[in-house]
Write a structure and sequence with these properties.
Radius of gyration: 23 Å
Order of helices and strands: EHEEHEHEHEEEHEHHEHEEHEHEEH
Strand content: 15-25%
Number of domains: 2
Shape: elongated
CATH superfamily of the largest domain: Vaccinia Virus protein VP39
Number of helices: 11
Strand order of the largest sheet: 2-3-1-4-8-7-5-6
CATH topology of the largest domain: Rossmann fold
Structural class: alpha/beta
Number of strands: 15
Helix content: 25-40%
Distance between the termini: 50 Å
CATH architecture of the largest domain: 3-Layer(aba) Sandwich
């Protein structure tokens, strides 16, 4: 079975990263956000940037590893490829893992965790392969020193990424730890919260200039609003986090606290304290309360405001701008209700959001037909395992024909 997070493994050959000033690095992302991630990396000074499916590879140094974890809005993990080899069976895997000198990466007193992704007919159980890799590493330490590293799944000294695609096994150091979409501001969520990386990607894909009005009139727990606010205020996505796996590295790419602190402080100094106002709407009092709590935790409540109202009653400010909505996809709704909802959204776009670019994401392609508007753009993205369309509807003031004549 094809695993979408693995495709980049067959697109380039990882180098043995020995020069800390010329590292090959991989940033993983969601399908459809690769171009945005490439632009982000270019802005950070990354070199030799290459696009892959759900990943971008590039070159940089230790400081760039820190910057990527702290500043990239559309990255999920920052990986440092170690090596790549072919594997025939579990014994072959064990032997080749044990042939690596693991003392270059950790000590016997340290801890480790193994994350495994499989897309191969050789193995069919990720936990078994993680156990096999762990055994090969700890057995090496036990044979050499009489003691071994222990497993810590929460905050290990070393988190190792193992990817097996057909007969190719790729090993990478995970510098991030928790996925970078876990910003740290979201404590309260509704039943199906949107991934923060996807939310940031949608805001950027919308083309919002950070000056016009930005509205999410179906804001749920507020994730899209918060990500838009962070973009407008230039708040680093890692601003709320206090732990990355690279902070526990003591050997290869040993953690330089002074370097990271300088990078963090520079990012904080660049925050804009007076961004444009951002508006949200939510029909449920309970969910709106969760959104307001998350907005407060993100420290953006001064310029993000949520109204408790139905999208049909939302009063958009004059001047135009951008609307982004993530409505229910119909998983918990009967067919008639979801079609009625999408029709109501389309009608509201026409009646209340003239002069706005209205964007809508959904995996329900049949329901999208009930919006009743012709999209000017369609972008394929994934929300979890769901393939979605991110649709743009341009709501001209007056009729489209008059707008074209004026143009």
């Amino acid at each position: 079975m094809f695993h979408p997070f693995l495709f980049y493994l067959i697109s380039f050959t990882p180098m043995d990263n020995k020069d800390e000033n010329n590292l090959r690095i991989v940033a993983t992302t969601l399908f459809g956000l690769e171009e945005i991630l490439m632009n982000e990396l270019e802005a950070l000074g990354a070199k030799e940037i290459e696009k892959h499916t759900r990943a971008v590879s590039f070159k940089g140094d230790k400081a760039l590893v820190y910057k990527c974890n702290l500043l990239l809005r559309t990255a999920l993990r920052i990986l440092i490829p170690m090596t790549k080899f072919t594997v025939e069976n579990d014994k072959d895997l064990y032997d080749k893992i044990q042939a690596i000198d693991w003392t270059k990466y950790l000590d016997a007193e340290d801890t480790l965790a193994i994350d495994t992704v499989l897309n191969t007919e050789i193995f069919n159980h990720t936990q078994y392969i993680s156990q096999k890799v762990k055994d090969a590493i700890v057995d090496q330490f036990r044979e050499r020193f009489g003691k071994r590293p222990s497993v810590d799944l929460d905050k290990p000294t070393l988190r190792l990424n193992v990817h097996v695609f057909k007969n190719d096994c790729s090993l990478s150091l995970d510098s991030s730890g928790d996925s970078l979409h876990k910003r740290g501001y979201r404590d309260k969520t509704n039943l199906a919260p949107i991934n923060e990386v996807l939310a940031a990607g949608l805001v950027i894909l919308s083309g919002w200039d950070k000056k016009q009005n930005f509205i999410d009139p179906m804001c749920g727990s507020g994730t899209i609003l918060i990500e838009a606010a962070m973009i407008a205020a230039n708040i680093p996505p890692g601003y709320y986090k206090d732990d990355y796996n690279f902070m526990r590295w003591t050997k290869f790419l040993y953690y330089d606290d002074e370097m990271f602190t300088a990078i963090f402080n520079a990012a904080v100094d660049a925050i804009n304290p007076n961004p444009t106002k951002i508006l949200g709407g939510e029909i449920s009092h309970h969910v709106a309360r969760k959104a307001k709590e998350n907005i407060k935790r993100a420290k953006v409540s001064e310029f993000v405001h949520v109204r408790e109202c139905d999208i049909k009653d939302f009063e958009a400010p004059d001047g135009g701008g951008v609307v982004v909505v993530n409505p229910p996809y119909g998983n918990r709704m009967v067919k008639e209700n979801i079609e009625e909802l999408y029709k109501a959204v389309g009608d509201t776009f026409k009646q209340r959001f003239q002069g706005y670019d209205c964007w809508m994401i959904s995996s329900n392609l049949l329901a999208l037909k009930n919006v009743g508007l012709r999209p000017s753009r369609k972008i394929t993205v994934y929300n979890g395992q769901l393939e979605c369309r991110f649709m743009k509807y341009e709501m001209y003031t007056g009729t489209k024909k008059i707008h074209k004549l004026q143009g």
